[in-house]
Fold these 2 entries.
Entry 1:
Amino acid sequence: MGWTILRHLGAWLLIGWPAWVLAADPLDSPSWEDLRKRYFAGQTVVFDEAVQVNAPVSAEDPLNVPIGVDASGLAGVQEVRVLADLNPIVEILSFQPGRAQPRLGFRVKLQQSTPVRAAARTADGVWHMGGTWVNTTGGGCTLPSTGSASADWQRRLNEVSGRIWHNAAAGPGQRVRIRIIHPMDTGLAAGIPAFFIQDLLVADASGHALMHIQGHEPVSENPLFTLDLPEGQTNLAKVRVTGRDNNGNRIDAWVTP
Amino acid sequence: MKTRLAIVTHLLFWTLILILGLPSAWSAEFDYQLQPKAVAPDTWVLQGRLEDFSFANGGNIVNTAFITTADGVVVIDSGPSLRYGQQLLAAIRKVSAAPIARVLITHHHPDHFLGNQAFPPASIAALPGTIQDINREGKAFAENMYRLTGDWMAGTEAMTPAAPLAPGTLEIGGHRLELLALAGHTGTDLGVFDRTTGVLFGGDLVFYQRAPTTPHARIPAWLTSLNHLAALPFQVLVPGHGPVTRDGAPLRQTRDYLLWLDQTMRDGAAAGLDMTEMLARPLPPAFRDLAVQPEEYRRSVAHLFPAAEQAVLEPAGARR
Ligand SMILES: [Zn+2]
């Protein structure tokens, strides 16, 4: 199609230009320029296929759109930011990989079809960006959580469950999956204030961070995170999950295999 | 940039129209081209396409049926829209001038009941659970169908069946109909077995050559219902979607698919797969070649995988 050719042309024209000219967004998003100014002002952003966002082309459930971010093709990733351009709340989450790979699986609420993009900052300060369009019938952000409608969640708020895999079918390293009971209300449903997990630290038994996650409102209710450790790291016996939501409620639990 | 995309979309749109000759279909005023086929004495089936809802098919992806009896016509499911219901009624009138005695709605999915407005309100009947489900979700289903099929839906509104059905035998105009209260495809599924002709109408408990849909599925209950249907001495089997058969092949195919789907969800969750990895999994040949694959498999992952994950991450009662 025409725009693919234009994108290639664009790539050729960019040779020898300063990085900030790399504004021709491969996702062809109407709001990328605004987002770039808002979240990456004065910083270098390059589009880089080493950063992958895996998501269904067409999402069945706008309240639970699965997203897999993978920046493990880059060395020395310090931080990854995930944004959904056309969502009423653009910021989905950020994470800083510690001993875990720069890779994270989770689910989000989407209000309409939108690009979902991940930017990974390497040690030189450059943001490497990849992404994909997700189509959805939408409505995911203005619906109340099911938790808000039930009495059960208050008793179980911030309850953590999870497991550690040693031979995940998905890869050679160890894998940790963590689920936390939380309504994750966006504040956009009438009469229900924003209520969401803001800060989460996943650490090994000796306190070393596997990953630090900063959540925002669009992360789905009862968040479920998938973390991968590098190949060969097989001594993870248990992990500790600590953190808090925006109302100051604490999270603190151990996950064992 | 958006403009460029819009131009490409427009070009594609008009090219498609030229290729498919849609203007003639549209000027034919949303004609579903319904063709009732006789499958047994007094018994007619209108088979829908093996597709998902689209602007091109107007929602005609479903099988509806009717039985002409001495006391009037019994209709099984009314189709996806008011227009469909009207055209179904017109198709019935080519075969029989008798009044509509009963419209039996098998379950609350939109392609099965949104033609209700074309029929006498008092004749429309469903099991109580289906009536409740249509009351609760019917309006949203109808809105969604407007989005998926457009003007085919003109004038369509969700109309709740007036008459609650009791399971058991319904004698009508020389036909002995057995009404079976089953479940699994949705919370309430009606099976209709005509003991007089040996025709079994399975509703959406039975799919054939088209992947089953699972937005409200409970697989264990669905399998139990399939066993129940398989035990009946039927001569002709009418699936909710897919061709009519004279054997139990659709029951076996639906059962095998559900067993595989259930096991695939459990295995994936036990292996620690993330949902994006589940979506990317290749399908085995037996199920890959069904119509609307891999789309239905992927939709089913969204419907069924979260519960399988939860069972693995959070063993029942472990954290109370
Ligand atoms: Zn159905």
Note: The first helix of chain A runs from residue 2 to 13.
Entry 2:
Amino acid sequence: MYKTLAELEKGEVGEVVGFDSGHMPCRRLESMGVRQGKTVTRVSSQLMGGPITISVDGRQTAMGRGIASKVKVKLLERENSGRMSQN
Amino acid sequence: MRILLMGSPNVGKSAIFSRLTGTHVVASNYSGTTVEFTSGNLRLEKETAEIIDVPGSYTLEPTNAAEAVAVEMLKEGDIIINVLDATNLERNLNLTLQLLQTGKPMVVALNMWDEALEHGIDIDTDELEKQLGVPVVPTCAISGEGVKLLTERLGDAATIKPKTEPEDIWHRVGEIIDKVQHIEHRHPTAGQMLSHATVHPVIGPFIAAVVLFLSFAFVAYIGDWLHEEVMEEIFEFVWEPVTGWISAALGGEGFFHSVLIGELIEGEIDMNESFGLLTTGLFIPIAVILPFIFCFYFILSLLEDIGYLPRLGVLIDTLMHRMGLHGLSIVPMMLGLGCNVPGAMAGRILETRKERFIALTLVSICVPCMAQLAMVAGLLGEAGIIGLAVLFFTLVILWIALGISMKFLLKGETPEILVDIPPYRLPYWKSLLKKVYMRMMGFIREALPYVLLGVFAVQLLYTLGVIDLLDRFFTAPAQMLFGLPGEAVGPLLVGFLRKDVAVGMLAPLGLELRQLIVASVILVIYFPCAATFVVLFKEMGLRDLLKATAVMIVVVLVTGTGLNAILRIAGL
Ligand SMILES: Nc1nc2c(ncn2[C@@H]2O[C@H](COP(=O)(O)OP(=O)(O)O)[C@@H](O)[C@H]2O)c(=O)[nH]1
Ligand SMILES: [Mg+2]
């Protein structure tokens, strides 16, 4: 199942599969290490449409939802699947 | 010889810079840009080299102004010290490989080595050296381990120009990582848990409120202590005798006496009230304002080095985005609380003209500097907490309302926040003090001359009778709109040049609480000081400055009138 990074829910894990590389913030994101093939975890998000925080390789990056919605991810299993049901 | 310290943001470049350089460091703008960098000297065996703390960048294909400057500076460097964060090797190697391709001699500092060990990240430095073809030195900038070796190996700096195509760089990074890095275990540390809590949408703002409250309490108490117990004493015992001697030499009166020393209060010099250049002119900025600015920049730089500011930026982004800014513009706002001058200068970190206009206008209208705060607190504080509460409430509401209006009225996009959130780290004290020192020097250089000029101009305008003239002209509107008596007009006019002086003049007028509140609010918002005006002109150009001035005039009329009406209705 595919989603954008903005749609990823808290605790969900995905693999980055696509970018809008003509978009400058996306290129910046890529140079910051959030790039194709990377596994991202949604850490938290601010209320009322505020920025979201993700974690890649144990490092956190925060971004506005507009940027996040330009990154496509493939949904992987949940981080703490031991405790949560998976469907 | 010129050595460049290059690397991504938050890898410890400035900490290594502080280790390598002496006390003589300078901050300057890269010519033709608003991007700032720091440079200093490094004594090597045979010569003294210039060393530059290049603005952090993730890539040599620039995605913002700071990165573009880094690429430009690269052309003028002789040796590169590429600083890497050992806990984040993979991301950092992208830049390393790009740097190698420029064909400049290079040495790699594998910084944060202590953290890497702690996190169970094992990096084979010999193998990394072989893979990259340039010296690799593990360092810990905080303890200094490895830094000496780093300078020794500058002599071995090698020039390698690998034939990696730009699109293959990440692939090559992967190969290198597989060969050199081994991660044993990774469990969440206390630091990481705290990190999550501080950007939590509900808990985060509470923590922020506590942090900000403690910061201001620190500034208020320590600043006050430095002011009263240290600076005032110094002035009393060292400077007052000197000015007394000058006063006597000038014969106690005359033109030069009134400019330099001012008026004698009951036959004596009074640092607070004489209003001469050498008396009040020096005393207010140095003994009253400087201690608070010092404390403020100390706390702010501490929060910055620990890594709290990006988190604060994330928390406040939702609000700031509605004001046409993104969360990181909280930095110019906070700096502006120290002194509007560096606040306005920090607007440079913002990318678009619209953002800079909004941020600078907000700083100059709604953000009171330490000098204003100290003075206004003195004026309103005597009547209890209510006056100050109304003042701050008004400023916050105005800040938000004005931001939202400007966002809608001005053309242009509002870029979104995009920021790396580094783990919490211990500050390196030398680096911290250097930062505070440079911020203080910035204030002394950019603002102090205008403060002195302001004192001089006030004296002159009074002597020439200009203030009296304006006084009569503005008395009627002030009474009608703001409910202020005629005597308050003079001080308010003087406030354009010197807010602090103006407050001192308002105090003896015996105003009611409502009038005091209205006058204080007007003083804080109506125009920034002359120094800030000069900086606004430099930063935004004449056209935008005129626009901002128009905004200021409208805002002060509306707010002054409205507040006066509301307070009357509220029965004050
Ligand atoms: N544990 C640890 N912290 C470091 C080291 N080097 C720098 N720091 C801290 O990391 C933070 C960021 O460092 P800074 O020099 O400002 O990074 P810059 O953005 O590259 O200039 C500061 O709080 C430093 O005190 C190191 O080797 N080990
Ligand atoms: Mg730095």
Note: Residues 155 and 398 of chain B are 58 Å apart (CA to CA).
